[in-house]
Amino acid sequence: MEPHILLDLVSHVDFGYAVYNKTEEIWIAKNPMFDLIKKKYEEENLSKNKPNMFLSFLFALKRDKIYERFLYLKNQIIKIQLADDPNLLFVYLYDVTKPYLDYSLLLPDQKKYEGFSLHNFSFVWEFDTNGKYTYVDEYFTPILGYLPDEVVGKFHFYDFLSDEIRDDIKNIAFDTFEKHESFGNIINKKISKTGHPIWLLTSGMPVFDKEGIYIGYRGIDTDITKWIESEEKSNSYHQKYLTVFKHSPLGMVQYDLNGKLVVYNDKFLEIIDIKKRLIEEMNIKSLFGSQLLNVFEESQKGIANRSKGTLYNPFSDNKIPVVVDFLPQFENKFLTGGILIIEDLRSELKKEKEMKKILRIDYLTNTYNRRSFDEDVLEFKESDLPIYFILADINGIRVYNESFGFEVGDKIITYVAGVLKKFMKHPMKVYRVGGDEFGFFIKNAELDDAEELIELIKKELNNHPFEFDIHVSFGYADIEKLNKPFPEVFMHAEKMLFSQKVYDGSSVSLRTVDVIMATLFEKSKRELNHSRRVSSMSYHIAKHLNLGATFEEKVKLSGLLHDIGKINIDSNILNKADDLTEEEWKIIKEHPRTGYMILNAVEEYRDVANIVLSHHERYDGTGYPRGLAGSYIPLEARVVSVADAYDAMTQDRTYRKALSTEDAILELRRGKGKQFDPRIVEVFITKVLKKS
């Protein structure tokens, strides 16, 4: 393969590459785009003092066997691909932001070329529309011998070219400038100040001002003299490009003017999946779908372009979605063929399809999510009518969450979703339309179909694996016409569901509270006896306050439920023989809030919930959790507080003996006006205890 073909293949404007050895320091081959991306990466990561940070990042990918990665830079997305080579690091970068990018935008406004030259083998330049230098960096001096001040504004780029190539290069260059085209890796020979020939590899791109007016070119020259002068190094140079070409994750093809394939890499064979002997007999045009064929015809007129489209294997039914760069080739100003650089989009499209699926699925239940629901509602056809929409809601999920934790709540939701899916016949889908709500559609259905399906689901739900009742309410509505607004359908189903929920939900929630208390008492027998005694004493205090039967029953129930919030506390803490640690006290002090959350989720217990929340408030305002004082503490809570404290003092604990009745009474009176309501204390001592 001729060197210039390889150079053309690996140097198009949106493709960067580099090859490094194991030391992570010595570069073997690379092009300007690689250094531009490296520079931008290190600037964005504030790593000017660590110039090898980008290489360290790439070698880390290689060590972790991550061969493909997207790099998100400001205003730019770079796709990184690494070759799986044991000895060398092959890096391939290509810009997936947009077809063509002015890489000058990657350079900072001030000192935009600082540190840009490649290990002192390169210099950066700019010249105006006439080819006169307007800028060269300090590395111009060690390469060509002139100081920047001697060059800028005084010499044209062609003034340094050797005599034998000056006219040809000048003509080709200005022809390129007129078209405002980028060019890459052009080998040319310049004469240094000392008269020595210097071989340079030149790449450049047009520069435009803020108004979009062409003002010149910007680029980089790399000194390759030693490689050119040494046959061995010249061959090595060619071999390095050949290795880049061979390992490239992009398909690369060079073809002649008649469309015959001249050279291609292994990746192209892998993409197109045609045997070599067949490829060599075919014309490049036979691979293209209509879109790519049109772009190919344009490239035959000398126009470079990039396009998405389809490649065809003419010997099979394979269709390959691709992005193709069409790069015409010239020799002595005459079109001689072209180069294709092909990116296989199949794996990307597959990932995109998988991602779209993920975005439509509820992660917890593996049902379809609300987004999918809203999209599918718009896809109904006349042939689907009549349709019944069924809405299902899990009763009491808040109580389960607050009592047993969200993990148990999630298990209930997942179980119900699994039962619903079990009864779905293709193509029926279950959608999670809310935290504890699911919806699904029955197409070509009548009322009996909907009601029969609901009964089957209810029957299956009765076999649940939980120690407490699980109940799901259902509502439904029909869709007879496609022009019927779906929000109206949803509202009808929801209205029916709520009527069922009111009928069923209360008994379920009440039974759930019973289960919670039973579970708490199972964890700690002491809590069972304590709650019963506090309930009884609180009731007798309330009787002597003469505030009516409703008040008395509320106080009695509050006394029984006052510690329901301890359901989430580990039994090792509840039954601990030693003094509690500071952290354990924090956990204990959360139980009024937890009790409130549980009871507030049940309509019948909402009045009691506030009493439970307040039973550890102190009369002087130093209690918890809200620091209420005096009459701001519910009267019922002040009653429970006295009964709770007395029972705690007069019962044995593993860490202390019980107080006598006389000593407990003394403590209650000491706490009057501080911890306790003075009136409640006296009623309890003089009437309840005296009577007992």
Number of DSSP E strands:
19
In which range does the helix fraction lie? 40-55%
Helical/strand content category: alpha+beta
CA-to-CA gap between the ends? Answer: 110 Å
Strand content: 15-25%
Shape by Cα distribution: elongated
Strand order of the largest sheet: 2-1-5-4-3
Oligomer: single chain
Largest sheet: 5 strands, antiparallel
Chain-averaged pLDDT = 82
- Rounded to an integer in angstroms, the radius of gyration calculated over CA atoms is 40 Å
List low-pLDDT spans. Answer: 1-13, 99-120
How many distinct helices?
A: 26
Annotation keywords:
692 residues; alpha+beta; 5-stranded antiparallel beta sheet; 26 helices; 19 strands; 20% strand
Structure description:
The chain is an alpha+beta fold and 692 residues long. It is built from 26 helices and 19 strands. The protein has a 5-stranded antiparallel β-sheet, sandwiched between helices. Strands 7-6-10-9-8 form a 5-stranded antiparallel β-sheet. A hairpin with a 5-residue loop joins β6 and β7. The radius of gyration is 40 Å and the shape is elongated. It starts with a helix and ends with a helix.
